[in-house]
Specification:
Distance between the termini: 38 Å
Structural class: alpha+beta
Number of helices: 2
Strand order of the largest sheet: 3-1-2-4
Order of helices and strands: EHEHEE
Shape: elongated
Number of strands: 4
Largest sheet: 4 strands, antiparallel
């Protein structure tokens, strides 16, 4: 089955190269939202696959220690028809945490 999964999250510590590239000083912690389209056996597996996909894309951007990973929340999940040919989206909408 195909699923569209809307994730939100927090606690992404921006890595030094990205901070320097964008002129950001000090530690910057971001929240985010992202949508993933995944193929999975059921809703639980779809949630796991969406989180794994987002985390893989975040790894190059973040400087989190293993003991302080980003947090994920599944905001919405929708089962799609197998004929739905939407391309899996990538990318994030980031916002600065307070």
């Amino acid at each position: 089955m195909k699923y569209r999964v809307l994730l939100s999250g927090c606690n992404v510590l921006v890595g030094r190269p990205l901070r320097q590239e964008h002129g950001l000083g000090g530690d910057v912690v971001l929240g985010f939202a992202t949508t993933r389209i995944v193929t999975a056996a059921d809703r639980d597996e779809a949630c796991k696959a969406a989180i794994e996909s987002a985390l893989a894309e975040l790894r190059d951007l973040m400087a989190n220690e293993a003991s302080n990973p980003p947090k994920f929340v599944v905001e919405e999940i929708e089962e799609l028809s197998d004929a739905d040919d939407r391309r899996p989206p990538k990318g994030f909408t980031f916002f600065k945490e307070k």
